[in-house]
Amino acid sequence: MNDSEILDAIQWNADGLVPAIAQEHDTGKVLMVAWMNREALALTISEGRAIYWSRSRRKLWRKGEESGHVQTLREIRIDCDADVVLMQVEQIGGIACHTGRHNCFYRRLENGRWEEVEPVLKDASEIYGRG
Amino acid sequence: MNDSEILDAIQWNADGLVPAIAQEHDTGKVLMVAWMNREALALTISEGRAIYWSRSRRKLWRKGEESGHVQTLREIRIDCDADVVLMQVEQIGGIACHTGRHNCFYRRLENGRWEEVEPVLKDASEIYGRG
C-alpha cells in the first residue's frame, strides 16, 4: 500500500481535515461523525480501527482509548469530491456516543422540537470512570 | 414550529455551515454529504426536501433542481454536539451522485488504491442535458 497516494487523493480542508462518518456495518446506522487529519487517516487504515483528530483537544483520538468502545474498520470509502470519508465499522460494546447511547444521532425533529429518542445504554460515569 | 429555536440549537461552524448527511431511508445507504446554512436547513424542514448550500456556487442548492433527483425528507436528526445533521430521505430516481451513480461513496480502498466499485446508472450528459 502506498500511503502517500491514498492520502494525497483526499481533498483536505483549510485546516488539513476531512469529516469521517462511522456507519455500523451490520445495522447500517450512522454512529457518529468526527474529523481526521492525514496522520489519523493513515493510522485508521494501518491499524484497522477508527482514529480521529480531536479538534477540541488538538490531538489524535483513538476512538475507544478511554471507553473501550473501539470501532473496528471493515471498509473505507471516499465520496466523489474526495472530501468525505465513510467507514463501515464494528462498534465494540455497542455504544458509540460519549453520552452512553448507541449512536450520536439521538435527537430527532418532532413537533417542532429536537426530541431525544434513543435510550442511554450506560451511564457516562460508568464508561469513563468516576475519577 | 418555532424555526428559530430549531436553528439556534445547531452549532454552526465559522462559515455558518453544518455538514448534512443524506441517508436512504429504506436501504440505509449513505448517499452523500453536503453543507447547509440556516436558510438551507429551514427550507429543508419547511419544504420537506433536502436543500443544501453550495460552497462552490455560493448559493442555495435545491437538490434535484436540475437533475430531478430530489431527496424527499422522511426524518431529520442532529448529533450530540449538534454540529452534524442526519437526514433519512427518499432518493427520487435512485441516483444521488452527479456522476450518475446511486450514491457518492463509490470509491473503496482495496489493495492500497481507491477503486471505483459502483456502476454509473445514467450518464451525466443524460442527467443534465447536453447544452
Structure, described:
Two copies of one chain form a homodimer. Chain A has helices spanning 3-8, 38-47, 124-128; strands at 18-24, 30-36, 51-54, 59-62, 71-78, 85-91, 107-110, 113-116. Chain A contains three helices and eight strands; from the N terminus they run αββαββββββα. The radius of gyration of chain A is 15 Å and the shape is globular. Chain A has 131 residues and is of the alpha+beta class. In chain A, 16% of the residues lie in helices and 34% in strands. In chain A, the strands form three sheets. Chain A has a four-stranded mixed sheet. Chain A has a two-stranded antiparallel sheet with strand order 3-4. In chain A, strands 7-8 form a two-stranded antiparallel ribbon. In chain A, a hairpin with a 6-residue loop joins β5 and β6 (85-91). Chain A has a domain at 3-93: Ubiquitin-like (UB roll) (Roll).
Short description:
The first copy, chain A, is an alpha+beta fold and 131 residues long. The first copy, chain A, has helices at residues 3-8, 38-47, 124-128; strands spanning 18-24, 30-36, 51-54, 59-62, 71-78, 85-91, 107-110, 113-116.
List keywords for this structure.
homodimer; alpha+beta; Ubiquitin-like (UB roll); four-stranded mixed β-sheet; 8 strands; 34% strand; globular
How are the strands ordered across the major sheet of chain A? 2-1-6-5
First CA to last CA of chain A: what distance?
42 Å
Work out the number of β strands of chain A.
8
The share of residues in extended strands of chain A comes to: 25-35%
> Helicity range of the residues of chain A?
10-25%
